[in-house]
Prior knowledge:
The structure is a single chain. By secondary structure, this protein is an alpha/beta fold. It folds into 2 domains: 10-167 and 350-365, Rossmann fold (3-Layer(aba) Sandwich), CATH 3.40.50; 173-346, Rossmann fold (3-Layer(aba) Sandwich), CATH 3.40.50. 45% of the residues lie in helices and 14% in strands. The strands form 2 sheets. Strands 3-2-1-4-5-6-7 form a 7-stranded parallel sheet, with helices on both faces. Strand 11, helix 11 and strand 12 form a beta-alpha-beta unit. Helix 4 (112-119) runs parallel beside helix 5 (136-144). The radius of gyration is 21 Å and the shape is elongated.
Amino acid sequence: MNAPVSSGPCVVVAGGGTAGHIEPALALADAVMRMRPDARIVALGTARGLETKLVPARGYPLELIPATPLPRKPSAGLIRLPLQVRDAIRQTRAVLTRVGADVVVGFGGYVSLPAYLAARGRVPIVVHEANAKAGLSNKVGAKLAARVAAAVPDSGLAGAEVIGIPLRQSITTLDRAALRAQARRFFGLHPTAPILFVSGGSQGARSLNSAVSGAAKAFAEAGVGVLHAHGPRNSLIVQEVNGAPAYIAVPYIERMDLAYAAADLFLCRAGAMTVAEVSAVGLPAVFVPLPHGNGEQALNAKPVVEAGGGLLIADEELTSERIIDEVVPLVADRSRLAVMSNATRSSGHRVAADVLARMVLDTVAK
Length: 366
């Protein structure tokens, strides 16, 4: 099949698996289309990632390739890996040829590695690293790339240009104060009470769920409402207290912009996207990094915490008692939250999507 005819460039984005890889890719796609309405965007993904929902919902075509997750420990999967990677490269190369790719932009994860290897020597590559510590895929991609960008300094990618994380316009242009009343009506929250927003990511986090729900009575007695996204595979039952602001528990939140607008404080994990979004909208946060991995989540949150816009609590130290002692008083302290909000916003990057889009288009032009 011949490549589609178009006057504009074809930009292939590779960032499947988790929202932390997909959302920056889609934010870049939107920015490219704002600059070059004649461009074509094609997303690479796998059948088992969130991209099967998120990419079509944003109006972009999705091309599926085989998943090639890298085993963290020696296993039978490691023996099969070379054949899996070779097959993924072959199929990805066929996609790049068929769509007429002019540039491949990778955001890390198991979709990016075959994209980098398929594009090598054929299509220019641009790499973006969102985390404080680069993963294996982006370390490989950076050696092959024409341009390399990173969210923060010292990501482990030599020569990376520090630009922040590409964010969608609904976040970078969010006016929390203007949307506050609408957002609270949307979720059924108290119109004027302090509100804590809790989320452990798209799948939820049991440690956050347990600690916060265990402090429900203390929140009610302090006149604080709670919006708690507990994850679709988890359940949460909290007894209502008559006359107190509501504790709203939901499996998942589609309208994160409204959740940010409704909240006064966010208790969350410290994924790169989460940290970037709270920084962009100026929402103070209590970060509870994932207890496993290579410690990158604590590093992601470090700039915001050091700027005075957030607190850091280790997962193993997050108890209902800690919530009652530290979080309940904080969410009710409007003057302290105002100072934290300004500090949080000062550490953010609102224009990263446009900066990366210019890098990508410049790479095509050259």
